[in-house]
Every structure is written in structure tokens, then in C-alpha cells.
């Protein structure tokens, strides 16, 4: 009768195989989902980080160029515009580039965009630069 416990173990392993395969399959699928999710999350973060960086860089270059143009002017309006330009530059320079988990990123980006719109309004310049950014316009001299 020493053979019966082996039969019970054999039947138990057959009966429990479905549960065991289900648990193993679930765990393999979960691990693969975590791996794929991490890869997709990193790619998404890189893409949106690059877009934000390009946008902030555009604003910064715009502000520096106008600051250079306005510094030589003695007009009262130019001083007000220069002050607004320096404010935009300050907001951009204080932007937390090094912190990828910065919680107020959206709020600060809206602050930069609002300051940019204010500066454009003071300069009587359109805020729509899509055609310039896409490179579709041609320049002629």
C-alpha cells in the first residue's frame, strides 16, 4: 500500500495543474506588462519632455533676442517691455529642469506661457509661431 500516496500525489498534481498554470501564466503576463509599461512610459516621458524643452527654449531665445534689441532704446515703452522681458527670462531660468518628478510642472509651464503672451502683447507681436517652428516659411533677402 505504499504505492497509494504516490497515486494521490499524482492525482493532486494533475488536478492542481490548472491552478498552477493559471497562476504562473498570470505572473508571467503581469511581469511582461510591467516591463512593457515601463518602456512605453519612458518613451512617452522622453517625447513630452523634448516637446516642453523645445517650447521653453524657443521662449528663452525669443526673450534674449528682444532683450538685446530693447536694451539700446531709451523709450519709456521700451523700458516697460524690457522689464517684462527680464521677468520672462527669470521665470524660464528658475524652471526646474533637473527634477523629472516636479509636481508643479504644468502650473509653471502655464506661468511661462502666460508671461510669453504678455510680452508678445506688449511688443504687438503675434503669439502664433507654428509656421516658423515648422520651417515651412521661406526667407528671402
Automatic annotation (TrEMBL):
Top-level taxon of the source organism: Eukaryota
Coiled coil: none
InterPro entries: Essential_protein_Yae1_N (IPR019191), LTO1_adapter (IPR052436)
Domain Essential protein Yae1 N-terminal intervals: 25-63
Stated family: Belongs to the LTO1 family.
Protein name in UniProt: LTO1 maturation factor of ABCE1
Native source species: Danio rerio
Phylogenetic lineage: Eukaryota, Metazoa, Chordata, Craniata, Vertebrata
Amino acid at each position: 500500500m505504499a504505492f497509494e500516496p504516490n497515486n494521490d500525489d499524482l492525482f493532486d498534481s494533475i488536478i492542481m495543474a490548472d491552478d498552477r498554470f493559471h497562476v504562473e501564466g498570470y505572473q508571467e503576463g503581469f511581469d511582461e506588462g510591467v516591463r512593457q509599461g515601463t518602456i512605453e512610459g519612458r518613451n512617452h516621458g522622453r517625447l513630452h519632455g523634448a516637446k516642453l524643452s523645445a517650447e521653453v527654449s524657443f521662449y528663452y531665445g525669443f526673450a534674449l533676442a528682444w532683450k538685446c534689441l530693447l536694451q539700446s532704446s531709451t523709450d519709456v515703452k521700451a523700458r516697460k517691455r524690457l522689464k517684462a522681458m527680464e521677468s520672462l527670462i527669470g521665470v524660464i531660468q528658475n524652471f526646474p529642469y533637473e527634477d523629472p518628478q516636479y509636481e508643479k510642472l504644468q502650473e509653471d509651464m502655464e506661468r511661462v506661457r502666460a508671461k510669453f503672451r504678455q510680452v508678445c502683447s506688449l511688443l504687438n507681436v503675434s503669439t502664433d509661431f507654428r509656421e516658423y517652428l515648422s520651417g515651412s516659411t521661406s526667407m528671402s533677402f
